[in-house]
Amino acid sequence: MPLTFRRLRRSVVLFLLLTAACGGRRPAPAGFDGAPAPVARPVVPPPPAPPPPPPPLDLAGYRTAIDLVANRIHAVSHREGRLVIDAGSPDFLKYIDGNWKTSWYLTEKDQGKPAALVANISSLLFVPIDCDGDGVGAGAGRGAPGDTLLSFTGRALAPKQKVTIFANEKPVATLELDGIAKRHDVTIPAAALKNGDNRLRLTFHGAGMLAGGRRSAAAVTRFALGPASLGPATFDPAPVVARDVDVGGTRKRALAIPGNGSRLSFYLQVPEAARLAMAVAAPGGAADVLVRVAVDGQPARIVYEGHAGKEWADAAADLGLAAGRAARIDLIARGGEVVWGDPRVVVKAAPRPTTGPGKRFDHIFVWMVDTLRADKMHVYNPRTRVQTPNYDAFAADATRFEWAQVPGTWSLPSHASLLTGVYPSVHKAVAHEARLSRDVPFVAEEMKKAGYKTAMFSSNGYISSKWGFDRGWDAYRNFIRESLPNGADYLWKTAKPWVMSGLRKPQFAYLATVEPHVIYNPKKQFLIKYWNKPYKGPIKPAKSGVQLGFIKSGKLKINDNDKAYLEALHDGEITESDAIFATFIADLKSSGLYDRSAVIVVSDHGDEFWEHGSLGHGHSVYQELVRIPLIIRAPGVFPQGKVVGSDVEVMDLYATMLELAGIKPGAGVQGTSLIGLAADEIGRSPRAAFTIDGQIARGLKVARYRLVHLGGQRIELYDELDDRREQKNLAADHPIALRQMRNVFGILYGYEQRWNKSRWGTAANVTPEFWKDNGG
C-alpha cells in the first residue's frame, strides 16, 4: 500500500514520541521542507525546591545545660563514612571501658607517638555500629551492618608476631605483624557484626618485655572502621578538634573534623524541654549540614537541615523527641568541611542565681544510719510497708536528695569516702585488712584546724582506730571496740552530754549508729509491726549476723517463711532507728540547737533481700545496696522541702560539710559541695555516681540509667525510673543508652584516681578545665 504524505507524517510523530518517552536522544529528522520537524517532549516537572530552613527557635531565657565543645569526649567521630579512633588520646577510653578489664597500657608513647600498648598478649575494645547513614553501617540496605573493613595502625613488640582478630568472639582473620608501624586491614563479614556495640578482640602469639617488667605484644596508634566498599582509610584519623575559629570576623569556639564528609555522634541523656543551639560555617566555601537524633526503639529523625557558608549561621533544633532519654545526636557535614560553633544543649531556665559568702554553721551533726537503703524509707518509696514517720518529717523540713549513691557496698569504703571526699581507690580502705591512707584529707582534722570541737561516737567496728579513723577527734568512742552496748539509744545517751556542753562553741559530731545492720534484733514493740505471729524456724535474731554468712555460703538452708522473718527483723530495726532519731531531734530542739545547726542524715549502704539472688551486702553493686537516703537540714542554705533529682555521691558530703563550716576544701578532694546543686541543678547536671566493689564490679548511675559492669561482655543496663528493682537488663536492646553509659563509664574509670568534680564537673558533663588539665 503506497505511503501517503499524511500517513508518513503520523508515523514520524509517533516514532518521536516513543523515542522521547524511552529516554532516547536522536537527531531530529528533517522535514520535507528541509526544516527540522517539531519534536514532542515529555513535560518534566521542575525539581522540588529545597525545604526552607526551620524558623530559628527563640532561645531567650534559655541556659546551657551541656556544652558540647567541653563534652567532645562523649562524641563518636566518623570521617568520610568511617568511624575513627585515636588510641593515643583520652578519646580511646570510651571504647575500652576506661581500661576496666580490657588489658591496655595507656598514655604510652611508641617511637615518639602517643599510643596504646597491648597488655601482655590480648586486648579488647567495643565499637558502636548503626545503620542510620554516614557511618560504619551505612549502605547495608537491610537494617544491619554489611561487610566492614577494620584498619589499625601499629607494630609488633615481639619477633615473628601474629595477631588473630575476633569480632563478637568470631575469628575473622590472622595477620602477621613486624616491627614497622603501618596500617593493617581486615574485612569483617557482615555475619559477625550487629547493630550496637561490637566486641573486638586482638589476640597475639607472643609478647615482648617492657621497662618495669611489663609485657606487651604490640603498640597501636589508631583504628578505623567503615563499609568494605569504601576501601581502606587513606587519611590520618585525627580525633575531634576543638579550636577558636574566626569566620567573617566573628570568633567562636568550634568543633571540626577535616575532610568533605563527617559526622559527630554525641551520646547524651537529654534534659526535658531541651534545644540544640549552635552556629555553622564552611570556611572552604559551602557545605550542607544535618542534625539527626536517634533514641532506642525509634527510627532516627532529622531535626535540622541547612547550608553552611563563609559566614556563621545560627541554628537551633528541638530535642523534645529525646527528652528524658539517652539519645544519639548526629552533627553531619556533607560536601565540605564544616565547623560547628559553640554547640550546646540548652534548657528553659532562670538565670543562674548569684551567691554571696555562704552561711557558716557552728554546729554540724551527721546522723549515720548504717545499712538503710533508700526504698525502705517512706519518703523515698511511698509503697514501702516500713514506718519511718520521724525521718519523713525531717525530710519535709530539709532538702532531700532523691538519688544518692555510695562508693562502696559495705561500711569501710563508704564511711572512708564520706570522711575524706575521695573515691575508695584513693583512700585505699577497700579490704578487711586495709587501713585508711594517711595521705588523704580527713574531715575531723580540717574542722579542728578551723576551731571546731570534734567528736566521733561510733557503733560500727570498722569506723575505729584499727582502720585509721581516729584522726582529729577531741572525743572519740567506738562502743563495739569498747565492748559496750552499741544501739543508737545508748550512742545518743553517751553523745548527748558532749553535745550539750558545747552549746556556745563550734562543734562537729559524727554519730555512726549501727541499726538496722546485723544483728537484726529489734525490740518487740517494733518487730510486731511486721511480724505478729509465732516463728519456729532456724533464724535466731541474736545470731542473725553469723547466720547471714551461713545462708550466703549455703551452709544454712531456709524457706520463704524464714526469708520473710529475716526481712521483718530488718524492717523492725529501721522503725526502731526512726524512733531514736526522734529523740535526737527533740533534744536538739529543746536545747535551742535545732535551728542553729546543720543536720545530715545519711547511710553507708543497704541490704539485699533476694532481689538478685542473695542477701546482706558487700557482694554486688545493685540499687538495693548503693542507693541510700541523704537528707540535709541547714536553714538558709538547704531549702526546706526541696527534692534534688540529680545524682550525687556520698563523698560529696566531705566538701559540703567543710563549706557549711566556712572551710575551703583542698585541691586533692574529689567530691564537690552540694550547696550549689541544691540551689540550682541547671548546668550542674547530668551527674555521674560511681560505686566500686573491689575488682569484681563497678556500678554507674547517670540520670535515668544504671550500669552494672562486671568486665568484658558481662554488662547490665537498667532503667531506674521504670524498673527500680533492676529486674530487666536492657543492655541487649538499648544500644544507644548502653553506649551513652559506656562513654561516661570509660572516662570516669580511666580518671578515677584523679577526678576532681569541683574543677572538671562530672564525667557525664565535663567542663573545659578537664581539657586544660589533660592536654586536649
Overview features:
776 residues; alpha+beta; 12-stranded antiparallel β-sheet; 15 helices; 38 strands; disordered N terminus
Which class of secondary structure composition applies to the elements? alpha+beta
Mean pLDDT across all amino acids:
90
What does the oligomeric state look like here? single chain
Strand coverage percent: 25-35%
Instruction: Quote the distance from N terminus to C terminus.
Output: 88 Å
**Unreliable sequence segments:** 1-45
Please estimate the helix content: 10-25%
Largest sheet: 12 strands, antiparallel
Instruction: Tell me, briefly, the overall form.
Output: globular
Q: Helix count, per DSSP? A: 15
What is the CA-based Rg, rounded? 32 Å
The count of DSSP E runs of length 2 or more, i.e. the number of strands, is 38
Write the topology of this structure:
Elements: H1 5-21, E1 62-67, E2 75-79, E3 82-86, E4 104-110, E5 113-119, E6 122-129, E7 148-156, E8 161-167, E9 170-177, E10 182-188, E11 196-204, E12 208-209, E13 215-227, E14 241-247, E15 250-256, E16 261-269, E17 274-281, E18 287-295, E19 301-308, E20 313-318, E21 326-334, E22 339-348, E23 363-369, H2 389-396, E24 399-405, H3 411-420, H4 424-427, H5 443-449, E25 453-458, E26 475-478, H6 488-500, E27 507-513, H7 524-527, H8 544-553, H9 560-590, E28 597-602, E29 608-609, E30 615-616, H10 623-626, E31 627-633, E32 642-649, H11 652-660, H12 675-679, E33 688-693, E34 697-702, E35 705-709, E36 715-719, H13 735-750, H14 757-760, E37 761-762, E38 765-766, H15 768-773
Helix pairs in contact: 6-9
